[in-house]
């Protein structure tokens, strides 16, 4: 008969050691906001730079202003008229290029996007309560027309300065002028040199005379109010002044500084 097995003595139980606390840390609200802001800035810079590079080579099909004007006319019960066709700069009259430089930005060919003297004059003029005037360059106007909305907020002006620097660096003067002359409002529902010359003079954009080019440039402060043909005495005086100043512009060299 087999001897009975002795009971195996139980090992003394020891209290289980607590597991080390997880090293996973939770971000505070402030840190989350910080990271969101950093990611948003990186996303904005990436998209904005990519957009500027893209439109260096591709025609701008439409601008925010074109959409805004169409909505305004639609909600106002007006006819929604839209005329815009892209025209390469070598097919746009040199007279029109000189006319917009003479009327809008006399230092366009030599500044780096901003005319600080013009801004100072505009500030002083507005401060004295005179008729409000702007000091925006063609580069600034192009940046605003293509990438931004209308308005006078500090945010928009800051973004305008940012995009102005980008297009000056990436596009260069000739491309800025080309986009400007193809995107700017030149009549009610009329955008760009091709549509404007057809609308006002029934002719090709490459064949504008100095006076005709001056007529288009003269209405740019308010192209929905003024007319390039059958103009008021005020616009006729502007035309004559612009033609005189066009002679001072001389030969345009977009690569010179």
From TrEMBL:
It is an enzyme of class 2 (transferase). InterPro entries: Glyco_trans_51 (IPR001264), Lysozyme-like_dom_sf (IPR023346), PBP_transglycosylase (IPR036950), Pep_trsgly (IPR011812). It is found in: Cell membrane. It comes from the Bacteria. It catalyses: [GlcNAc-(1->4)-Mur2Ac(oyl-L-Ala-gamma-D-Glu-L-Lys-D-Ala-D-Ala)](n)-di-trans,octa-cis-undecaprenyl diphosphate + beta-D-GlcNAc-(1->4)-Mur2Ac(oyl-L-Ala-gamma-D-Glu-L-Lys-D-Ala-D-Ala)-di-trans,octa-cis-undecaprenyl diphosphate = [GlcNAc-(1->4)-Mur2Ac(oyl-L-Ala-gamma-D-Glu-L-Lys-D-Ala-D-Ala)](n+1)-di-trans,octa-cis-undecaprenyl diphosphate + di-trans,octa-cis-undecaprenyl diphosphate + H(+). Residues 1-19 have a biased composition (Low complexity). Its EC number is 2.4.99.28. Residues 83-246 form the Glycosyl transferase family domain. It holds the Pfam family Transgly. The keyword Transit peptide does not apply. It is a single-pass membrane protein. Pathway: Cell wall biogenesis; peptidoglycan biosynthesis. GO terms for biological process: cell wall organization; peptidoglycan biosynthetic process; regulation of cell shape. Residues 1-25 are annotated as: Disordered. GO terms for cellular component: peptidoglycan-based cell wall; plasma membrane. Its main location: membrane. Keywords: Cell inner membrane, Cell membrane, Cell shape, Cell wall biogenesis/degradation, Glycosyltransferase, Membrane, Peptidoglycan synthesis, Transferase, Transmembrane, Transmembrane helix. PANTHER family: BIOSYNTHETIC PEPTIDOGLYCAN TRANSGLYCOSYLASE (PTHR30400:SF0), MONOFUNCTIONAL BIOSYNTHETIC PEPTIDOGLYCAN TRANSGLYCOSYLASE (PTHR30400). Belongs to the glycosyltransferase 51 family. NCBIfam families: mono_pep_trsgly. This is Biosynthetic peptidoglycan transglycosylase. The gene is mtgA.
């Amino acid at each position: 008969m087999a001897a009975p097995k002795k009971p195996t003595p139980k090992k003394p139980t020891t209290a289980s050691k607590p597991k080390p606390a997880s090293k996973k840390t939770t971000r505070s609200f402030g840190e989350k906001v910080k990271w969101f802001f950093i990611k948003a800035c990186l996303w904005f810079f990436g998209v904005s730079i990519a957009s500027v590079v893209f439109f260096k080579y591709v025609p701008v099909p439409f601008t925010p202003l074109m959409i805004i004007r169409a909505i305004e006319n639609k909600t106002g019960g007006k006819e929604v008229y839209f005329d815009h066709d892209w025209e390469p700069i070598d097919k746009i009259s040199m007279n029109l290029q000189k006319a917009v430089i003479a009327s809008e930005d006399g230092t366009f060919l030599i500044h780096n996007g901003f005319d600080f003297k013009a801004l100072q004059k505009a500030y002083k003029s507005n401060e004295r309560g005179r008729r409000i005037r702007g000091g925006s360059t063609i580069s600034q106007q192009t940046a605003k027309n293509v990438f931004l909305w209308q308005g006078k907020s500090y945010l928009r002006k800051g973004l305008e300065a940012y995009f102005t620097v980008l297009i000056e660096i990436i596009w260069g003067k000739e491309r800025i002028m080309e986009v400007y002359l193809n995107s700017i409002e030149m009549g009610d529902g009329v955008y760009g040199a091709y549509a404007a010359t057809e609308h006002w003079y029934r002719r090709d954009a490459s064949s504008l005379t100095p006076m005709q080019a001056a007529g288009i440039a003269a209405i740019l402060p308010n192209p929905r109010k003024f007319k390039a043909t059958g103009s008021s005495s005020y616009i006729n005086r502007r035309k004559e002044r612009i033609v005189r100043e066009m002679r001072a512009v001389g030969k345009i060299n977009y690569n010179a500084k």
